[in-house]
Structures are given as structure tokens and as C-alpha cells.
Amino acid sequence: MKKGNKLFRFGLIASAAALMLGACSSDSEKQGGKGADGKETITFINHKTDWTGNGKWDEYIAQFNEKHPDIEVKVETITDYAGQMQIRMNSKDYGDVLMVPTTIKPEDNANFFEPLGDQKELEEKYLLLTDRAYDGVSYGIPIAVNTTGVLVNMKVFNDAGITEFPKTPEEFLAALGKIKELNPDITPLYTNYASNWAMSNWDFVRESAAGDPNFTNELTTDKTPFDDGKPMNTIYKLLYDSVKEGYTEADPTTTDWEQSKQDLADGKVAAMVLGSWAIEQVQALAENPEDIQFAAFPTTHDGKQYTAIGGDYNIGINVNSEHKEAARTFLDWFVDESNYAADTGGISPKVGADLPAALKSMETAGVEFFQATPAPAGKESLFADINNSSEIGLGTTDATKQRIVDAAKGNTKESFDDIMKELNEKWGNAIEEVGQ
């Protein structure tokens, strides 16, 4: 996501039993092999568990096999994808084609993934390759381009007399309060506290909330980024205040991701901070899909709202795969020919693609889309290194966000200011430790 480079051209659920079976299978079964029918078999591991249940992956593989009948693709889906894949990647048993976990450091790409080509050459065809490139080599291609903001049931807002989505934290809190007052049975803002991944979306709005495509790079030199008035403080304070005022679920520890989507579709939940990838999932559950809309995070700069676009999971090839040619054939088909981006409400990763209908409302509202600025050469892993050293987990864990919720609920004795002070200390120390 590059500063000043605005896009106007937009242009197994993995059960324990399944994991045990994978661990007990032979090496040929793990990495794919020739079946009795002579087909080459590869395994594709991903996070889209809902597509296992609704048969969508079966449709995709059937479409692939129309063009490539000699390659059999076995699909394995995992709910806690990042967590489970971290464990799986301690061995060579992590499929042939997979979604690249966001926890992998850029400098470690080559240890786990097959190089896909020269980054500059691939950038002529695809957007947002920076996340999974290192030293000018690409190891992954985004499966879609998304933005992070607020997924809402706009009918709930309209019924409360709110016809335009709030543009500031103050307006947003007032809207949540009005919804709660008019219908106490509705949860105005659902945190998905117990998911152990969904709350990371509060971190992914940071460039949007800052209105600055270079914000993540600036975090690598700011030793007090959680001070009052700074974007990270603003984001976390909105979460804290929403919980403190009683506008979120009564018991965050019992949240349920799958149920939350149905509740949002049914109007029992008004809003969730999520990526635009979730639009399609919730609209598919709604009686009136048009009620489900996507809005920019409620912050405004000089009267303008911004939203940063970024790559969804990147798709890559296991460097240990014994079937790299077949794996590359599937990968290329997936990003070039499948309808994945459109089917998930995302923007195509291909250069020149149009903005999908699901995000047109943001464009109509005057929200400005931009790409985040890539890290300077030689500092591709600096943010990740500082983030890991600090143990704050911006965008990688829910722990800090859960801590804020716990404090707001009164389950701990910490104040919001206490938490922000400690986060500043951890981040500042990490900058010193990692160095420039």
C-alpha cells in the first residue's frame, strides 16, 4: 500500500482428528502423489472453512479440472489458520499450495516458500506484492485485495434514525448508544473476543485511522505511538469506550464467530470491525443482502475519510513440495482465472481491476482509497521485528485487544491509560532493542 499511489483503477474446519490423520499419513500422502488413476495429487490448505460446508471449493476444483484434468486437488480448510499452520510448518507437512501465514517474517519467506518470480516483473500484473516479497523476489500473490473497516447492518442504523454511517469516534459511540437505547436486545458492536483472530482487525485499520499511507513505517521510529491523540490510541479508545458503555456483548468470553455472522445478517448485531472479505459471507446469510454494507473506520481528517487497501492472504507454494509444477499450475489458475476475489467481495489482485459492487457505497460516500507505503529497502522486516520484540502483537494476536476489553468490563483493575503507558514502554524498548 503505497503513499500517494491512490487507486482509481481498482483498476476442516480442521478438526483434531483431521490433523491427527495428517500426522499419521505417509510422506507421499502429505505432499501429494500419483493416484491409481495416474493423476498428480496436490494438497491445497486454506482458511475458508465456510466453503467446505457450502460446496464452493468443490465447484472451484471442478472448474480447475475442466482445464487441468491430470491434477487432483485435495482441499483442507482450517479455522484457526494462522495458529495451526504455525504448528504444521515446524515440519515439511503443510501441503503443496497454501495461504501464507501472516506470522512468517519476510526474511524467512525462502525457508518455507518457493520463489514465484521477480517482484518488479510480477508487479506489472499484480497489486500489493510487498507483503510476501524479500530482496526483490516474490513468494506469494494476494488472493484478493481488501480493506478493513466496519461491516454493518445498515437497516439497524436506519431504524435508529441514523441514515449515514458515523464519520468520527464520537458520532459512532452516539450511534451505538441510540441503537442500544431503542432496542436493548440488539448488540450494537460485536467484538468477537473469543475468536483469537478477529480482533486483530482493530489493528489493520491503523493507516485508515491515521489517514496516512506511511503510518506503519512511522511506527518503527515512534517510541510513544499509544499517546493520547495518536491513531493507535484513538482506535483502542473507541474499543474501550464501546465496551465500557455497554454497547458490546454481555460476556465477551462466549463470543462465537460463525453465529456472529448470522446475528449481523439478522439484525441482532449492528456492527463489527472486519475486513471487506466478510461482506459476502454475511450477505449470503441475510434475508435482504442489501442491508449489509461496509463503511470506513469512523475517523476523519480535514473533513475527509480514508481507507487503506491491502492484500488478503497471499497464496504460495511449499518449498518442500514434490509437485511444484502442478502446484504452480493451480496457483496461477487461482489468481488469474478463478472468481475468488469477486466471490468474496474483494478487489481482484490483477492490475486494472474494477472496484466491486460491495465497496461502491464507500466510493459514493467520498472515501479515499490508498495503498500503504512499502517499507524502505533493507527494512522490510523492521516493523515485524519491533512488533514481535514488543510482544504487543499488532495485527498478529488478539491479546492486547482482549486486555483492553477486560479492563473496560471491569474484569481487571487496569485503566485504559495504564495499558497505553505500558504499551508505549514495550514499543519504545523494542525499537531500542531491534535498532534501525
Largest sheet geometry: 6 strands, mixed
Task: Report, as a whole number of angstroms, the end-to-end distance.
Answer: 22 Å
- In CATH terms, the superfamily of the largest domain is Periplasmic binding protein-like II
CATH topology category name of the largest domain: D-Maltodextrin-Binding Protein, domain 2
Give the strand content: 5-15%
Average pLDDT score: 90
Q: Please tally the helical runs, counting DSSP H or I stretches of 4 or more residues.
A: 21
Please report the first level of CATH classification, the CATH class of the largest domain: Alpha Beta
Radius of gyration: 22 Å
The quaternary state of the protein chains shown equals single chain
Shape: globular
Total strands: the figure is 14
- The tally of domains stands at 2
Class of secondary structure makeup? alpha/beta
Low-confidence stretches: 1-32
CATH architecture of the largest domain: 3-Layer(aba) Sandwich
Helix content: 25-40%
Signal peptide: 1-25
Organism: Niallia circulans (Bacillus circulans)
Pfam family, one: SBP_bac_1
Keywords: Cell membrane, Lipoprotein, Membrane, Palmitate, Signal
